[in-house]
Design a protein that fits this description.
Elements lengths: L1 H24 L9 H4 L21 E6 L7 H16 L4 E6 L7 H10 L4 E3 L21 H8 L2 H14 L1 E8 L4 E5 L14 E4 L3 H9 L3 E4 L5 H6 L5 E5 H6 L8 E3 L7 E7 H6 L2 H35 L3 E3 L3 H11 L1 H8 L5 H14 L1
Parallel strand pairs: 1-2, 1-3, 6-7, 9-11
Antiparallel strand pairs: 3-10, 4-10, 5-8, 5-9
């Protein structure tokens, strides 16, 4: 009898130990990459990594520039991106965003990313990635669903992938740079294509904008975005083209009299990241940053859709004249711009097959 009692007590003890071991196996453990937890005599105290699976992956900083002012969808969505990355990595990746052109022009910022002095930049700068210009063909799309379908297509992914080998940058997101773009000038209302003949229109140096204005009979002058307000005010250019949110944010309506809601073009907004820095990151952080960039792009496009009408109303309320063409007048603009398609194929921006692929993507987007 005594033996049976001892045996029962022993079995109870074994069961208790098994339960404790089972609970312990369900607790979070440090990453398998953790050198500190494996190395004898590691200085890190036992249990210090509890609750932080990224503690042994290192700390990284990411300096990102862009040209837009506070309140612009790019500015707001980039602030969200920085906060999201910090939270998701438990503070191990710190993103510093310098907006409003603090790091220079968009071209200068992209040069900094290529050189590695900045880790990233967002903006419609295509000097090093001219193939992205295929998405800026005039009147290629007419609504958000078509824009989204193009930017998330396999064709867009292919074009972005070409950039790493060509420029040493990785494009981790492609969203909308500001919405559909409008014409403005200080000379007269633009209600038909011939109204652009003889006007000196500002461009940012983009081939498709230059080709569009030149096809319509205007001359072009390249002015950096950060200098555009003064360029319009002093007559360096008669007019310009930009989305409503950009016009409102940069207050171009203060120095332009006539606007036309032509909706002729949208621009992709690539998020360039230095490839060497990107490839130095642990895979876990690459995944987190990519996910945060995706959420940022979706939020950016949502903000554009929510704010474009409000921005247009600010411009109307300022006293500037805003002309809204009829469907027939818009068709006249579209027809006048069609030669740009052939010229882009001749320039090697896209092939005839890629143009057909884009048109098919748009048609299926509904």
């Amino acid at each position: 009898m005594k033996f049976k009692k001892i045996l029962a007590l022993a079995m109870a003890g074994i069961m208790s130990l098994s339960l404790l071991a089972g609970c312990a196996s369900n607790n979070p453990t440090p990453s398998s990459n953790s050198a500190a937890s494996a190395a004898p005599g590691a200085s890190q105290a036992a249990g210090e990594n509890d609750g932080d699976p990224y503690a042994d992956l290192g700390n990284f900083t990411m300096l990102v520039g862009h040209a837009q002012p506070e309140g612009n969808p790019r500015f707001v969505s980039m602030e969200k991106f920085a906060a999201d990355v910090k939270e998701a990595t438990n503070g191990h990746v710190e993103v510093t965003v310098m907006g409003n052109g603090q790091l220079g022009t968009e071209k200068e910022m992209l040069e900094q990313v290529v050189a590695g002095t900045a880790q990233g930049m967002r903006g419609g700068q295509y000097d090093f990635s001219p193939r992205l210009l295929m998405f800026t063909l005039p009147f290629l799309t007419t609504k958000r669903s078509e824009v989204t379908a193009l930017l998330q297509s396999d064709l867009a992914k292919k074009v972005c992938a070409e950039m790493e080998e060509a420029t040493g940058t990785v494009i981790i997101n492609l969203c909308d740079a500001g919405g559909y773009r409008q014409f403005s000038n200080n000379t007269h209302p633009i209600t038909k294509p011939d109204d652009l003949v003889g006007l000196k229109m500002r461009t940012n140096g983009m081939k498709t904008i230059d080709l569009t204005f030149q096809t319509l009979g205007a001359s072009t002058v390249s002015v950096p975005y950060s200098d555009l307000y003064m360029g319009l005010k002093t007559g360096v250019a008669d007019g310009q083209e930009n989305p409503w949110v950009n016009v409102e944010g940069m207050k171009f309506y203060e120095v332009q009299k006539y606007f036309t809601e032509v909706n002729y073009q949208f621009h992709p907004d690539p998020f360039y990241v230095n490839a060497a820095w990107w490839n130095s990151l642990p895979e876990e952080f690459q995944t987190i940053i990519t996910d945060c960039a995706t959420a940022m792009g979706e939020y950016n496009d949502q903000l554009i859709d929510e704010n474009s009408g409000k921005a247009k109303q600010v411009i109307v309320d300022s006293g500037a004249e805003v002309y809204e063409p009829t469907a027939e007048e818009l068709e006249a603009f579209r027809e006048a711009m069609m030669p740009v398609y052939d010229k882009c194929i001749e320039e090697g921006i896209c092939t005839a097959d890629e143009l057909k692929e884009m048109q098919d993507i748009v048609a299926k987007a509904g």
